[in-house]
Amino acid sequence: MRQSLVIGNWKMNGTRASVELLAQGIMAGLGDNTAGIAVCAPYVYLPSIGEIINGSRLALGAQNVADKASGAYTGEVSAAMLAEFGCQYALVGHSERRSYYGDTDASVAARFCQAQSQNIIPVLCIGETLEQREQEQTFAVVDGQLDAVIELAGIAAFNNAVIAYEPVWAIGTGKTASDEQAQEVHQHIRQYIAAKDQTIAEKIQILYGGSAKPDNAKGLFAMPDIDGGLIGGASLDAESFLKIYHSV
Q1: Nearest to residue 92, comparing CAs of 60, 128, 59, 122?
Q2: Where in this chain does the entry annotate a coiled-coil region (predicted)?
């Protein structure tokens, strides 16, 4: 039985004071839910959030990780640096990184490997644009994004990874894939992995990452191949985020 997982992606939001209050609010409402939960804070807030959540069930994550181990890469943050501050997860390939900052399938695969080199669990974000969906390219797009990692790291690398399916057309737009639309792609992803390794496919967590909110989370999380969510805007409010968390 796969454990459910909910990850909050705070993106480029908050002040030190506001995110510390947010983390404390989330911790206070965890209750006895045994599902996994994590928050991906902006780099500069990782130390303070790490101290606040230390020893709790709330895990720390980063929103990105460099595709190189070290060197003359101004502005980048390496996996080793993230590991020093207790990061357990790192997002790689978020659609905003792909769209705005030129991340490619190849560079995302390199980031994935860098995270794993420091025992950080990469959360591989994959998904199609509206144009690609309308052209019925969804499966081909996600297959290609998975293949880039498989070709570089091998299918065994998914033993210690999370996949987040984020339909790009549903991020920040208020649109959400229907439960059935999301399940269809999640099922395809799991079957694609299963064709290469059935054991990994059965245990890997595949999260939904497209504008999940308290009012639609329960239906999405009830789908057999959806193991939780990568939550954006709703994770900036402790009450909303906890409602989503307690939906799993």
Answers
A1: 122
A2: none
Of the listed 94, 96, 128, 186, which one is catalytic? 94
Domains belonging to the chain, first-starting first, are 5-245 (3.20.20.70)
**pLDDT per residue over 150-202, tens digit each?**
999 999 999 999 999 999 888 767 676 799 999 999 999 999 999 999 999 99
Q: Consult the annotation and say whether 9 binds a ligand.
A: yes
What are the distances in angstroms from CA 44 to CA 16, 136, 161, 163, 184? 9, 40, 24, 25, 37
Catalytic residue among 96, 128, 166, 186: 166
**246 given a catalytic annotation:** no
Three-state secondary structure readout of 126-169:
ECCCHHHHHCCCHHHHHHHHHHHHHHHHCHHHHHHCEEEECCHH
232 in a labelled binding site: yes
**In the annotation, is 94 catalytic?**
yes
10 is in an annotated binding site: yes
pLDDT value at position 116?
Answer: 98
Is 211 annotated as contributing to ligand binding? yes
DSSP 72: S
Model pTM greater than 0.85?
A: yes
